[in-house]
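Aim 2, interim progress. The first record below pairs a target sequence with its C-alpha cells.
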Amino acid sequence: MADTPVPRYGLRGRVVTMDAARTVLADGIVWVAGGSVSHVTAAGDRPAAHAGSPVIPTAGTIYPGMIELHNHLAYNTLPLFKIPRRYTRREEWQGTVGYRRYVSGPAGVIASVPELIRATIRYVECKSLIAGTTTSQGLTLRAAPIKHLYQGIVRNAELPDAAGLPPARPKIGDVTPDGLAAFRRSLAGKGARILHLAEGSPTSPARQHFLDLQAPDGGWAIAPEFTGIHATGLTADDLAIVAQRGGSIVWSPFSNLILYGVTADIASAMRLGIKVALGSDWSPTASKNLLNELKVAQIFGRDQRIGLTDQQLVEMVTVSPAQILGWQDSLGSIEPGKLADLMVVTGQAADPYGHLIDATESDVRLVVIGGTGRYGTPALLQKLSPVDENLDVAGTARAFHLDTKDPDPVLGPMALGEAATLLADALEHMPKRAAAIGSADLGLVAQAGVAGAGADQRWFLELDQPAVTGVGTALSDGVAPAFLDTMIGAQSFASIAVPLALDPLATQGDGAFFAMLANLANLPEPIRAGLPGRYGQAPRAPAARTGRADDDRSIAPLPLAGPPSGAPKMLTGPY
C-alpha cells in the first residue's frame, strides 16, 4: 500500500484517448509523471523515462476524466421529487410550495448551518467523483464582503488549479435589457461565459430571454466565449444565430424533460456544428451524475432518431467541454503533456464509447485527478495513494484518498462517512431544523463556526439559483442568498417542511429514485421504461398518489425587510 501518492507510474488497459484521431488502443499504457500524461504507448513498450515506474493492470478501459459544465452542487444532497405537472418556464415551478418544501427550503437550512455546509461540500464533491467526474462547476461561500470559491479534490471550473486553465465565468440569472451592455462587454474577456438561457418551452416567455441578447444596434451578445445552459426555448433559427457567432450550449435532457416535457433542439444544434456539452443539472429534478445523464441522452436520441452516435455523446463529457472552457490543451483527452485526469471503467466491451455510456457507478474502478489516485477499488487505489476512507458505494467496496497537501481552509477535517451521517440526520429532522432557525437569532446557528472563518465572520453556502420574483432580493448576478428561505418568511417554510432522505451517492441501488421515476409523467415513456433496466432494475408502476396536494400551489410574495443580523450584505458590481 502506498504511504504517499505514487508520482510516476503506468496504467494498463484499453485506452480511449479522445485525441483528434479518436485513437483507441486495445491494450495500452498511460504513463503518468508529475501530474501529467508523459507517454501513451502500446502495452509492450516502455519509455526510457519510465524504466523504474510500476505498471498497474486495471482490467478495464481508461478514459479521460469527465468534465461537467452544469451542476448546482449545493443542492445535491436532496433527492428527486415529484413534479406535479408540466411547466412552460423556470419561474413557474420556482414559485410553488413544492419547490420550497423539497428544494429551496431544505437547501437554505443546510446552507446556513456551519457543520452542514462542511458536510455538503464533502458529500457532493464525492458524489461527482464516484461517477468519474474530475471537473465540475464549483461551490461558493460568502461572508460579507468576501466571496470564497471552494477548491477541493474535483477541479473547479471557476477556480482552476493549474496553469493555462482560464476560469469559467458563470452567470445564473437571465440577462436583462439593463444589463445587456455589461454582459456584452464581458464576452471580450478570457474564459467561458456560462449562463442559463431560455429555460422553458419555445412557445413560452422563456424564449424572450434569448431575444433580449440582441442589442438595439442589431448586434448580439453572443461570441465564442458564450455558453448557454439548457437553451430549451430556442428555435432552429435561434440556434443558427448561436452557431454563426461561435457560441456553445450545455444540454441537460433529463431535467428539461422532467420539468417541461421538451428539451433543446439538439438535432439542429449538432447539424449547425454547435459545440454541445452534457450537464446533469442537479439531483432534485435530474441526474445524480453524468453516467446517468449519458444514458438518458442516448435513450432520448434513439427514440427521437436524432442520429447521435455514442462517440458524440462521449465527446460531450470530454473534449467538447474542454474546448468550451478553453482547456483543450490541458484536458479532455489522453495525450502526452496533458494533465492526468483519468477514469477507469471495468471491462473492455466491443464498442469503447457505448461501454462508458453503459457503465454504472459500480463499474468505476479508478479515478485519477492530476496524476493522484482519488477513488477506486481498494486493490487499485492503494497501489497509487494512501486510503483515507473505505465505504460501500452502490453495493461495492470502494476506497477514497481525499487528503490534500494544502486543504481548503473552509472544509477542515471532514470524512465522507461523517458528512453523510450529519446530512441524513438534518434532512430527516428538517421540520425541527427549520423551526429552530426560524425562531432563533441567526447568529446562534453559527457558533460552531466554519473552518477558516474569523470570529466575526458568518459564512453561507451560496445557493446558485435565481431568487423567485417577488420573494426576496438576489445578488447582482441573480444568485439567491442562502438565508432567503430560512429567514425570510422562515415560519412559512417551517410550517410546510417535511422529513427528507439524503440522496444516495449512486443511482445504482437507489430504489427511491426509480420509484419516483415511474411517477414523472412528463418524461417520455422510453426513458421511464428503459432507464431502470440500465441499472438492473425492473420498471415500476406509477403510484396512485405521490407528493402533497398543495405542492403546485403558488407561494404568495413575501416582503423583504432586509437581511438578518450576521447575514452577508448584498454584493453589487460588474458582471
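The second target in this work package is listed in the same format:
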Amino acid sequence: MFDLFRSRDKAVRIMLGGLLLLVALSMLTYLVPSYNTGSSGTDVVVAEVGKDTITVPEVQRVIQMNLRGNRMPPEMMAYQAPRIINSIVTEYAMAYEAQRLGFKVSDEDLAAGIRQMIPELFQDGKFAGKAAYEQVLAQKNMTIPEFEGELARELLISKLRSVAMEGTIVTPQEIEQEYERRHDKVKIEYVKIAADKLRGEVQVSPEELRKDYEATKMQYQVPEKRSLGILLVDQAKLEQTIQPTDADLLRVYNDNKDNYRLLERVDVRHILLKATDKDPKQAAAVKAKAEGLVKQLRAGANFTEMVKKYSEEPEAAAKGGEDDGVVKGRMVAEFEKAAFSQKVGEIGDPVKTDFGYFIVQVLKHEQPTLKPFNDVKAQLAEEYRKQRVNELMQQTADKAQAALAKDPQHPEKVAADLGLEYVKADNVGPGDPLPQIGVNKEFEESLASLKMGEVSQPVLIAGNKFAMAVCTGVTPPHPAAFEEVESKVRDAATRERVNHLMDQKATQLVDKAKAGGGDLEAAAKSMGFEVKTPDAVDRAGAFEGLGPAATFPDAFAKPVGSIIGPSGLADAKIVGKVLEKIHADPAGLPAQRAAIRDQLKAQKSQTRGSLFEEGVRDALTKEGKVKIHQDVVNRMLASYHS
C-alpha cells in the first residue's frame, strides 16, 4: 500500500505545503460561514462533507455519550450542543482532506486501533470473537460498521495532524527561558492592610445613611411578588386508587408473554487449563493433562477439590468452578455448545477454546418455560399500576389545569373536587421557598410571567408530584422603604468607606516608602503596620499569609529594591518590596530539558493544530465541500432549549 503517512516524500510535502498556504489565506479572508439553509431534500441531515453526511441520530448519539459519561450536565446541553455539532463537522472535514491528500488507513492500522480502544476484547492476546465485539459496542449504542467507520476517520485525522504538526520546533533558548521562569524564586517583605482592622475607624451618621439610601435606592428594589393557589397531584396517592381486575391483568399477561418467559439455562461447573501462548508441544501436554483429569473425575474424584487443585481460573476456583443460570450467548461458543448438549451429571471430554481446555459438568438443565399467570400476578399488578398511574397523572393534571382556567377564583374547590392537595402561598418572590415544594427553579420559571387569574403549566417536582398554580394576586416591584433595607444600606456604606480608607492608606504607605529610599519597614512602622517576610517562592508556590505567588506577578518582573503594589485581595490591600531574586540552578536543567521541550511543543502544537483544523474546514466550506443544513441545526438546538 502506498502509505502517505510514512513516506514523507516530496509530493506529500508539496501537497501539504499547498494546503497550509490555502488554510492561511482562508483564515485571513474567510469571515462569515456560508451555511446551506436547506435544499438537501431531507430533514435529518445536519451537514454534508464531500459525499458523507452527518445525520441527526449521529449527533444525538454523541450528545447522549457525553451525558452518560457525566461529562456534561443536562442543563448545559442547549449551550454545548452547537460546540458538539461544530466538532463533528470539523472531524469529517479533516478526514475528507486527509483522503484527498492520499492518506489511507490499512487493515493493520484499524486492527491496532481496535486493540488500543477495546483491550478487553484481546485477553491473553486472542480476539474474543465477533459476538463479544458486537456486545461491547451495543453498550455504546453502536454497530461494528459505525465504530470502525469512526475509528478509521480518527486514524486519518491523526495521520494528517501528525504531518501538519511535525514542523513544530522548540528552540534551546525557549527551553532555558521556560526552565528559569519555572524555577526562579523571589523573596519579598509585605504589609497587609486588612479591612477588618480599619472598620472601627469608620462611622456612618444617620444623615449620611439616609443620603446614601436616596442616592442608591433603585438598587434596593422589592421584586414583583405573587399570591398563589397551588394544586399538587401525588403519584403515590393516585396509584393507590388503581385496582386492576384479574381480567385486566390477564390481558396484559397475554399481550406480553415474552416478558415472562424463562430462557433455556444450565447450571454448570468447570475446570480450565490454559493453553494460550504455548507452542504445539506444550499445548498437546495441556490437552493430555485435561484428558487425565476427565478420567479421574469419571472414576469418582471430587470435582470441587479438583477445581481447587488444578483450575487456572482463580475466581472460578473460589466458588468451586460453578456458574449458575447460564443462558446462551454468555459463554464462548465451544463452551456453550458443550454446556447445552451434555447430559446432566455427565463429565464431558475436554473442550478446546481460545482460552485453553475446559472440563465441563452440567449440574442442572432447565428448558425454556412460560411463568404461570398466578406466579407473576403480583408483578403484573405492580407494572399495571405504574403504567396506568402515568396516564392518570397526566389526565388529572390536564383536568385540574382546565378547571382552574375556568374558575381561577376558587382553586381550593377544584382541588377538593379532584381529590388533590391544595396549598396557599401569599406574596412570594423569586427564590422564596414554597410550602410543600421548597425552592424549585423549573416551577418558579413557570410562575414568572403569570398575570392575575392565569394558570401555570404542570411541573414535575420532588416526590413524583405534579405542581401547578393559579395566580390569585400580583404585587408590582417597587423601591424598598428605608426602614426595610436600613441594615443593607449601612453595610454597603461601611464597606465603601472602609475600601476607600484602605486605598488611601495603601497609597500613603507606597509614597512614604519611596520617599524613604525604598524603606518599607520604616514607612510601615510610622503608620502602625506590621511587616512580614515569608520564605522565597517560585511562581508555582505561595507566599505565607498571602496566597499564590502568581497573584503578584510584579514580584517576579521588577528588580530587587522595587516597591510593588498596592495589590488587592478580597478583604485587604498589599504593599510589598522585592528583597532578593534567586535564579534557577542550571544544574537541574539537563534532567528537565526533555520534559520541558515536550510540554512546550505540545502547547505550540495545540494552538497550531486548532488553527490548522479551523482553516481546513473554512477552506472546504468556501469550496462547497462542507455544507451545513442550518435549518436542521436550528430545530435541534430549539429542542434542547425547550
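Residues 1-42 have pLDDT under 50 and may be disordered. This observation will shape the mutagenesis plan for the next reporting period.
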